[in-house]
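Just curious. Invent one:
>
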Amino acid sequence: MKKLIDLSNLDLIDSIKEKIVYYLSYSKEEDKQKIRKAIDDNDLNLLKKWFSSNLEFGTGGLREIMDIGTSYLNEVTISKAAYATLDFFCKEYDREFYNKNDISKKSICISYDTRKNSDIFAKISALIAVKKGFHVYITKDPMPTPFLSFLVRETKSFCGIMITASHNPKNYNGFKVYDKTGCQILSDMANKIIEIYNSSIEMEKIDLLDFEILINKKKIEYVKDSFIDDFIGRICTVKYNKNLENNKKLLNVVYSSLHGTGINIFKKLEEKIGFNTFYVESQIEMNNDFPNVKSLNPENLESFEQALKIAKENNSDLIVITDPDADRVRFAFLDENRYFIPTGNELAVMLFYYICSQIRLSEIDSSIKKEINEDYFSVTTVVTTDLLEIIGRYFGVEVFKTLTGFKYIGQVINKNENKKFLFAAEESCGYLVTGILRDKDAFSMIVLILEFLSYLKSQKIHAKNYLKKIYEQFGYYLNDLVNIDFSEKKDKDIIDKIMIYLRENPLEAFCNFKIRKIFDFENNIESFPKSNLLQYIGENFKVTVRPSGTEPKLKIYFQVVSHNEIQSKEILETFKNFFINLIKTECLNHVGS
């Protein structure tokens, strides 16, 4: 490769110099000028910041801040990610074709969210895909992540790329990869792509002006509206009590898309089902600056502030908030004169119980059988409430457990296609209630929630009381999540060091509560792949610790169980205080930060 600039006088290790030279070969002129200035100024800290690392696949694919250099997302690193991904899938396609497997056609589906540069990154990926011999289906406008998963399956494409950083702050973007089933790729594929990515890929120059030329040549094809209509039609078939269809039309709903992709699909749902909506007008415009939103994550109650005001003014029955790529969703239910906003765990419990009870009633009514068909199954994760398993056992529905991440949930669904999939849930407000795609989906969940709320109103019971009855039947399973943020720490390995310390110094008890078992998922745990996750199990409690896959945070998941709500809350607070103190004092003192 031609050397563009002399770096011999810089006090930098060779690997960083090599990255600078490589990056300069492909970067746009604006970035080149900034890099050359940093070199001329001998700004080693800035150069190390830009070029000290490479991107890595986490639980949500590639996800990083947008900035200059190999450490960040930009046109160069997106190009390299696309080259590596498509090089991998070219080899996979050729291998399957050679082995005469029943394979999909050599096409790829690409979509993107409303973030800055998302459309550019999507077009770059499309141009590279054509160079690699793929026919490209690309959405003309920003679209939700679940639609991309659906599209891959419907077009029988070989793979898919979604440009999104989901609910991360606005300065982030991301690159998610899907296999031919519409499922996010697992670690084995991701590792092979990263191996290609980390090699010195010789890339051809990309000219965005070629995009329209390839559209005209039909090598890149905009996704037809009929696919969107099919998506809406299929998710609207999610129903467990047909007698409630007309009741849905009586509901008043408040909706916010948080400036994201959800608005167009939601409006189509409203038109098809017939419920009435009050929109949070200040938040429904697709805007990459996300100007009127305090948090892009519906898990954070700040995202509900404006919606709650509108709901109270109109006495609305339901609030619906989707994150920017509309895979996550959270709801608020009108309970008498105030709004109940269930957590991801609480909503999962209510909906799973509702689904199972409705199926059992329908099967009894039709004189088929008194037990739920044994072929039904659901999926959850090791950090989601164990109450889902208890409910499944009660109704006779098998509940599979996976590691965190819908890619694992999608894999389980793929492996059980001869059975009837019912429900999947993560504690982080990710759900799936239809088998037409393989990623979490806000919209099929919205359809189900409208039925569930119609049922509650027909029974004259509020959501919170419905949940309370479940707790009274099975026990008070209280769950909470604590995120400890290390973004201000200079040591980027601080979280890994804390995990090592916890492994080398195994706890015996939380306060006076004895730990009976510690599961280290870096070892072989049943059928789980290796993962940097520790789980502490005791009588009526579970605590799970893992690094975030997308942010510099340590995530600690708590679960306590008792037959008394007050006692559960007291134990939960005790555990949270103990563990936060453990991490922030003992662990940090020992790892030297």
